[in-house]
């Protein structure tokens, strides 16, 4: 019961601040956000990626100016980062479950895939030429297509049709799921980096982090 009191107190501190905020903006203690017509977020509340229960969520206020051009640019960036993070998250998890590829990563250096540790430990093991190839491919992806405003690439369509459907509703559902999964993956990969950095392992055991002052 005493633990529950602490947990409920933390929740209530967040809740009452939210209620004050809602009351102040809508003019009602049990305010209807539809009444908050002054919000610049109205311009984007029907955009893809607006999902329950939070609706259009922009705690940092990036869209407070209501600028549609800036919103489109940030959405393009969000899509890129989300896609990269989904791949990175799978890159962290898959070798832990399935093992590594056979053969050599660098035959000239005698470096096998099996010699590369998972996670952050791989950074110091991959040869400089390997990092150069990665950087070159990233640059190619960025400059090989016109990404100026109004183009398909500016909307996140780079011609790689993985998520598509002949049914417009189904296609929209998949594209919304892509944004949601990308957001989750951005949080996930940062958590994995943090865990790896503190425990020393990609699939780290927090019991090994004996230096934690939280002990």
UniProtKB/TrEMBL annotation:
Main location: plastid
SUPFAM superfamilies, alphabetized: Chlorophyll a-b binding protein
GO BP annotation list: photosynthesis, light harvesting
Domain of life where this protein originates: Eukaryota
Gene3D superfamilies: Chlorophyll a/b binding protein domain
GO terms for cellular component: chloroplast; membrane
Pfam families: Chloroa_b-bind
Location relative to the cell: Plastid, Chloroplast
Record protein name field: Chloroplast light harvesting complex protein
